[in-house]
């Protein structure tokens, strides 16, 4: 087989085609991992396995605290391990909101005991995510916050956003922004276009996103501070971002697998599992997002993994909450829908799922080099597997891919030096926080 | 819910959206309705066709004409029928649509007719029960039997559907009737023009195969002026779609001056007299509103008949000879 244990204690040998785009590696290699470190890299014969730097997901809803029926730190990180992730960042829109050092500290503690892969926690920009007063950012940073965001809601007040950008400079932590003008998205259920018009669904126009993207970029430029734009969905947003980056604005961005693979045509099914915020948009928007991912304008794939209890999605489309899960399917979905048809190079995908998001949030990039901590994913590109409701490690099954057969699969994940997923099983061991 | 003793059922058919229908389906249902209309003139109006079948009406939105006509349609065909309204039922106790549907499904109904304020509700009922599901209106999405009864009314009154020009005037944005009717007109070779203020014309709606205009004068070209109600209950509070009903009426109200002789006027009801339609028009010979109600009964009978007895398209003669069944 491609993976051997050599009998010397902990050490693990992986052989395969190693693809590490940022290091310009694409060759058959044998990697030796011992005591959590990559200790030896040597040439090897050809084989079918692909080995890459493990993935980083900067946008996960762990629903903890408050909705542990939908996801826990344990279940969410098990899903991450199975999806090939070596690090994830959790969103603070929980109950209570992660807006004080006490709430954050408790989560960090819990993650130390429960998390299967290193987990970082973002803290809120505003108290209670109400968009009125700043959180105690310095104290939150000291307590281990990975970044600040009011995700789930936009920062409606331009003045507050400006102050947040200025003040968060004290912490060196990035601000991640959910761009939505609520007056334009009000009652929005689907992208404003042919499908929403035909189905009568409340229209959520592209401008509801791009107006805020434009505003946020202008404020970031004014303050000369970095921002990260979350889950972009519209061509107009991409165009604004590209122009701002060319002008020197320090803005990074992410895109989800569902926005890259699906359009609002999918909404015709009225399946609540294709309802998300921002909504699936047109083919033109999808192609713009794909183009931006290719050229690096959008540097990161993020799942926006959003578990919802079965009873909450088992309702009419119009009454269903927004959001879908994604950790366990992200690579396979993008490989199946973009790489196999030739729309995206495997190398680009691997970079945007690993180094790209790590860079956007100032995290240590997973690397394949002697002496580095082992953060490695092994992929079987020949695998075919059906996505079924009972196949998830996540506590929720609200996937937009149910019933599909996907190609390519994560078969092994090494996160922070520990083997956390292999042989279809999540391997439990004690883990740490995200390394910066 | 069906027991193993039954032979394998043919694929279930639903009427969830006009989009699910072919021209052939529409013509077959209208032919059946025409044949059934004869039975309404008899002294004994009941037909034994659906004896032993069960039709459940599940209504989560207030309705007078639609519920009444589905109930009567089922009864006229000798089906057992039962109607549940959201108010005063377990829905008040917080039961989900899915659980209510599953509870009803335990009685093994042949048809569940659903009206619900949320788009996608009939699809959910179709997913979680074994019954044929008829959409009697889901939010702003679809109301396919209304479209079929409107076609029936036009065909009866004007003698044809092919080539008809229909102007649909008013609050298109919130109207499931408009969406269904535009698609149905397209299926039978007629053409719709949607007329209303820009704020009530959803962007992209012309993809349904219709023309769009903000000028009330365009209705002069139509054979049928189809007037929609201003749906204030579907408008979010504070969302200012029109500055005032007074201005709306001045710009788009259907007055005698705006109706050309030879045109017919239709309205799905209930009417806001003096808002979208002048009472002089509503009460004139040009108005087909009561025709539409009468069509509702035969068309809903035809729809129930079609779902329950036509596995492959049946000849009209079967429908015409039903009373001997």
Keywords for this entry:
heterodimer; A: 436 residues; alpha/beta; Urease, subunit C, domain 1; TIM Barrel; nine-stranded mixed sheet; disordered N terminus; B: 325 residues; Rossmann fold; 2 domains; five-stranded parallel sheet; four-stranded parallel sheet; 34% helix; globular
Describe this structure in words.
The complex is a heterodimer of chains A (436) and B (325). Chain A has 436 residues and is an alpha/beta fold. Chain A contains 14 helices and 19 strands. Chain A has helices spanning 73-82, 101-114, 137-142, 158-168, 182-185, 194-199, 206-223, 235-246, 257-261, 283-295, 310-313, 330-339, 346-352, 355-360; strands at 3-5, 12-20, 25-34, 37-43, 50-53, 55-60, 85-90, 119-123, 145-149, 175-177, 190-191, 203-204, 227-229, 251-255, 300-301, 376-386, 405-415, 418-422, 425-426. In chain A, the strands form 3 sheets. In chain A, strands 1, 2, 3, 4, 5, 16, 17, 18 and 19 form a 9-stranded mixed sheet that branches. Chain A has an 8-stranded parallel sheet with strand order 6-7-8-9-10-13-14-15. In chain A, strands 11-12 form a two-stranded parallel ribbon. The two termini of chain A are 35 Å apart. Residues 1-8 of chain A have low confidence and may be disordered. Chain B is an alpha/beta fold. Chain B has 2 domains: 18-142 and 297-315, Aspartate/ornithine carbamoyltransferase (Rossmann fold, 3-Layer(aba) Sandwich), CATH 3.40.50.1370; 144-291, Rossmann fold (3-Layer(aba) Sandwich). Chain B is built from 10 helices and 9 strands. Chain B has a 5-stranded parallel sheet, with helices on one face. A 4-stranded parallel sheet of chain B has the order 2-1-3-4, sandwiched between helices. In chain B, helix 1 packs across helix 5 (144-158), helix 2 (65-76) packs across helix 9 and helix 5 (144-158) packs across helix 9 (289-309). The A-B interface holds A 186-187, 189, 192-201, 203, 269-270, 272, 311, 314-320 and B 96-98, 116, 118-121, 123-124, 128, 138-142, 174-176, 179, 202-205, 207-208, 236, 239.
